[in-house]
């Protein structure tokens, strides 16, 4: 009887382990390969999504262009090497690809023109928006094609992949497999996505270029220096924000303010789910930590 009990316990334990594996899925972890000491680059390319270019010229939802992860990394590189330069490329269209033909079109027409043999570093920060079954299926091979293309056209470049503020099990697997095949360093950032590191509704963003925004208000006050203090509701919650404007108009009947200037207010919960300044700082620090950059 005791042998039967022991056997039964082993079966239950095995089922539990399999169930846990299916429940938790693929684990996102750093991948580190021995490429020697990290050398400060002269020229770099950043390929990213909304975390790189979601607020126009900088990452969503940093409060300004000096506060996203790219800006933090760039400052450290410039301090060590004043001649350092970099380029940013949006990879959201690559994330949206549903087949190899679309991927090859992006690689040939968007990526290859910005790859150079004098690049020292390429940072990939995509995968978060690979969010349908067809995209995920294509991305399994596409992630490898992306790295292979970089290696072919920028053979000197060290490649680093940062993933993922938003994660899925299949994309984790695809990214890890591609990085393992080509010995690419993977910086895992999923642990940073938590309260305190995300942006918030009501956060004021200072844009690089002038823009306009309309907002339904409950009340507003005109302050000095063309500033507006606006009270508004989102999802039944009350918020208050102050923005600097160049001009504004009020549709009193609709209770809608429209203003022009460089500042906008975050009112969308999906935008607010992106990193705030603290989250971006921590992403950059993870990058430095994994690459052992002082």
TrEMBL record:
<protein>
    <recommendedName>
        <fullName>SGNH hydrolase-type esterase domain-containing protein</fullName>
    </recommendedName>
</protein>
<dbReference type="GO" id="GO:0016788">
    <property type="term" value="F:hydrolase activity, acting on ester bonds"/>
</dbReference>
<dbReference type="InterPro" id="IPR036514">
    <property type="entry name" value="SGNH_hydro_sf"/>
</dbReference>
């Amino acid at each position: 009887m005791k042998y039967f009990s022991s056997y039964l316990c082993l079966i239950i334990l095995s089922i539990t382990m399999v169930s846990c594996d299916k429940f938790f899925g693929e684990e996102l972890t750093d991948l580190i390969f021995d490429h020697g000491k990290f050398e400060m680059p002269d020229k770099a390319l950043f390929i990213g999504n909304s975390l790189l270019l979601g607020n126009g010229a900088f990452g969503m939802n940093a409060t300004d262009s000096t506060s996203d992860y790219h800006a933090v990394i760039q400052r450290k590189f410039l301090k060590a090497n004043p001649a350092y330069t970099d380029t940013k490329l949006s990879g959201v269209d690559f994330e949206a690809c549903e087949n190899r033909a679309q991927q090859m079109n992006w690689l040939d027409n968007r990526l290859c023109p910005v790859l150079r043999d004098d690049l020292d570093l390429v940072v990939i920060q995509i995968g978060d928006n690979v969010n349908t079954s067809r995209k995920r299926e294509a991305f399994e091979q596409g992630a490898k094609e992306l790295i292979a293309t970089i290696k072919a056209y920028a053979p000197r470049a060290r490649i680093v992949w940062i993933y993922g503020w938003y994660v899925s099990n299949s994309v984790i697997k695809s990214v890890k497999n591609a990085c393992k095949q080509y010995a690419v360093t993977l910086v895992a950032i999923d642990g940073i996505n938590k309260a305190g590191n995300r942006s918030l509704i009501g956060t004021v963003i200072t844009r690089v270029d002038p823009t306009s925004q309309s907002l339904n208000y409950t009340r507003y006050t005109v302050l000095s220096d063309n500033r507006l203090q606006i009270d508004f509701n989102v999802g039944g919650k009350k918020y208050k924000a102050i923005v600097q404007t160049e001009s504004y108009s009020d549709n009193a009947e609709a209770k809608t303010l429209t203003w022009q200037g460089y500042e906008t207010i975050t009112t969308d919960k999906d935008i607010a789910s992106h990193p705030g300044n603290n989250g971006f700082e921590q992403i950059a620090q993870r990058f430095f930590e994994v690459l052992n950059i002082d």
